[in-house]
Structure formats: structure tokens, C-alpha cells
Amino acid sequence: MTTITPHEELNVYQSAEARFDLAARHLGLEEGLYRYLKYPSKEITVYIPAVMDDGRIEVFIGYRVQHSLVRGPCKGGIRYSPNVSLDEVRALASWMTWKCAVVDIPFGGAKGGIICDPEKLSRTEVERITRRYTAELSEWLGPEKDVPAPDLGTDEHVMAWVMDTYSMHMRHTVTAVVTGKPLDIGGSRGRHEATGRGLLFACNKALERLRLKPSDCRVIVQGFGNVGSVAAHLMHETGYRVIGASDIHGGLYNEKGLDIPKLVEWVHRERKPLPEFPGGERASSRDILFRPCEVLVPSAVENQITSENAHRVDCKILAEGANGPTTAYADAILQEKGIFVLPDILANAGGVTVSYFEWVQDRQGLFWRENEVNGRLKDVMEHSFDEVVAVRDAHKVTNRTAAYMIAIQRVASALRLRGLYA
Ligand code: NAD
């Protein structure tokens, strides 16, 4: 089994591997199963030619990595970012396997990405790139095979183009091929807010365990996109005091509490820069992470909390809204500091949970009311939290290792039952 070295700290695939290794060792996982689960099942690279608005032809590189199909169809988002790499997509695909297994939904893990900067592309260019990427992957996608969803740089409209392109190839409408769609074409009520809402449910459980009340808690949120802004909004409504927020443009701080509904309006409806909001002092996006608070919610990108800076984190609960915001090397430092970590594969699992509900609703052709979706999500998040802390207490491990242990055990059990097809 491998151990990572410091210069590999920022390689997310190495980070993912290190967590998997540690949990597999605690479980005493057989060497053969260890080897099977460590590697992805399939990695697909596509070169996507697209006609740009000025008539030029550009070629973009896209990936889809399917990590595991052992417990069901692959599930995982599609990311559009200049920083996409095969290693990143590999790591994110394996995290999806473990995430789906922690919350016990019948999916394996996958992830996709295209190396591009959506901020520099027009909507028509994004549409053409999305449709060609989907067409290239059409034989590997499908409700029973691999079901994408939105991630960084993609939204519900991109999912609508994926669904339409796939459906055109199949010659009939296939809503369940993708989740995170608009409501009018088979989306689920509550999906847009699901990741932030799931994070809130997990945080509320952590507060109970630490005997804290929302009104005792100052919250700082890094990243103010789908996950961060919804989490901030719902936490504000629940009585938490959100004192800091940031996005790619910078941060904002107000010890008395930011007016989150107005900030959401400012950023998402009026499309104004977050740091220019008049209700707080400006701060750098990085600096905001190290201000004292009770709940820190990194919900932007990977590798924000590292062995270099983890000693500066000053919170009681670290709720990982983003995937991989903490490096494996930082884990031990956070543990020494006694920080209660809600690991990404649990804390942000609300999104994939409601994606699962969307897939179920699409397949049964019967749609649920929002309170039914939210009620089922609450049940899944609270139950999963209880399972993770039970394993933590029984095995004297961190929440992260406990979550991985539960997930690996579930996937390994399915694999033992199915056996290896040779
Ligand atoms: P998004 O594109 O909607 O928002 C990302 C936010 O992060 C934006 O506000 C952006 O300005 C900000 N940001 C980017 N780089 C930053 C930096 N260096 N410092 C501070 N802010 C920065 O994306 P999202 O859907 O909210 O996803 C955020 C994270 O959550 C990703 O890691 C994603 O994989 C993860 N996640 C998303 C979902 C989901 O349902 N959307 C589910 C699970 C996990």
C-alpha cells in the first residue's frame, strides 16, 4: 500500500489514494479487493472539435472516468474549468464511489470534465462543446450505465443540453440520463439547494454532538456558488451567524453577521462582485479561511487547507462543502487541533442524494413535492451522520476514516457477493 510524500500533497489523486489506503488498512481489506477498488474501471479521453462564434475551429480535451459500477450505474458531475486534469477527474470519480456508498444510494462513482474556461466562452460555444462531448460519450452514458450531473462551471442548462443530445441519439426522450436538470424537463424539486441543505443537516447533527446551538455559531463560507451560497442562506435562516464569505473575486467579513439574503441577491441576481457588497469589510479569499469561527465551510475548490496552513484554521467544525478542500497531510493537524471534521464524502453528499431522487422520479414518471424531497434528504443525511460517528467512536478513528471505512466495506461487500467475472 502506498504512502504519499510532501511534494505530492497537492495531487488530489494521491490525496484520495491516501485516505483510501488508511481506511482499507483499518478494515484489514484483502489485498486483491484493495487492488480492485484502488483503480478506476474505465478512463475515456475525448478530443472535442467546436466551431467558435468567430468561425475558428478549436479542439478541447474532455474526460470521463468511471471508477466503479459495482453497486449500480456510475454517477458523477461534469466540470468545466481550465484546471481540469485526468488526475483530478480520477480523484473526483473515486470520491463519488465512496460518497454514494456512505449515504447508501445504489450508484457507483464517475466524474467528467472539459479543459476550458466557461467565463471566456459564449453560451452558444458552451452548448456546442457540451453537445459534442455528450455525443462522443453517448455509448457509455445512460440511466443504467452512467448518469452525469452539474459540477464546477456547469449548471442545469448544460444538463438540459446533455439530456437533449443523448435523447436525439437514442431517438426518444431519456430524462434519467442526467440529473440536476431544469424542473420542466424532469428535474427534481429541491435539487438546486440539495448540497447546501444536506450540509446544513450534517452541521446541525454536529452541533448536537458538540452541545452547541446555531445561535452560538459564527460561520465562514469560502466559495459563493451553488453549494456555498445555498449553505450560507440556509444556515442564516436557521439562526447561525454567517460572518465571512468569499468567492474567486475576494472575501467579505462582518463580525456582527453578513446580511446573507441581500448578499445572495447582490451576487446571483444583480451579478455584482461579492467583495463590493456594502455590508462588510473586504478581505482576501484565502485570509477568510483563517479567521476565528465555530463552523468553517470551504465550498470552492480543492487543496485550500494544507500542511502549510492547517495550524491556522480556527474553528470547531470543518464542514467540507467542496470536494477535496483539505489535503491528506492536513488531516493529522486538524485531528491534533481537535477540529470536528465533516468530510466531503459525507458533508456534500446531499447533492448526489437528491440526484438519486431525481433519477428515481424520472424512471417512475412520478414527481414528489419539495417537502417530500427535503424530508427524505434529511433522513439520509442524519442517518449517515449517525453511522459515521458510530464507527468513529467504535474504532477510535477520525470522521473521515470512519466514512471511508463504511463506504469501502459496502462496495467490497457488493463485490464479494457479485464475484469477479472472468
Ligand atoms: P460553482 O461553480 O457554483 O461555485 C464555485 C464558487 O467558488 C464560486 O463562487 C467561485 O467564485 C468560487 N471560487 C472558485 N475558486 C475560488 C477560490 N480560489 N477562492 C474562493 N472562491 C473560489 O460550484 P459549486 O457547484 O458550488 O461547487 C463547489 C464545490 O462543491 C466543488 O468542489 C464541487 O465539486 C463541490 N460539490 C458541488 C455539488 C453540487 O451539487 N453543485 C455537490 C457536491 C460537491
Task: Describe what this molecule looks like in 3D.
The chain has 422 residues and is α/β, with parallel strands linked by helices. It folds into two domains: 41-183, Rossmann fold (3-Layer(aba) Sandwich); 194-347, NAD(P)-binding Rossmann-like Domain (Rossmann fold, 3-Layer(aba) Sandwich). 44% of the residues lie in helices and 17% in strands. The protein contains 13 helices and twelve strands. The protein has helices at residues 12-27, 31-38, 86-102, 123-137, 156-170, 194-209, 226-238, 260-269, 328-336, 344-347, 350-364, 370-395, 399-418; strands at residues 42-51, 57-66, 74-81, 108-115, 146-150, 218-222, 241-247, 250-253, 281-283, 295-298, 317-319, 340-342. The strands form two sheets. Strands 9-8-7-6-10-11-12 form a seven-stranded mixed sheet. The chain has a five-stranded mixed sheet with strand order 1-2-4-3-5. Helix 6 packs across helix 7 (226-238). The model has no long low-confidence stretch (mean pLDDT 96). Bound molecules: nicotinamide-adenine-dinucleotide.
Structural features:
single chain, Rossmann fold, seven-stranded mixed β-sheet, five-stranded mixed β-sheet, 13 helices, 44% helix, binds nicotinamide-adenine-dinucleotide
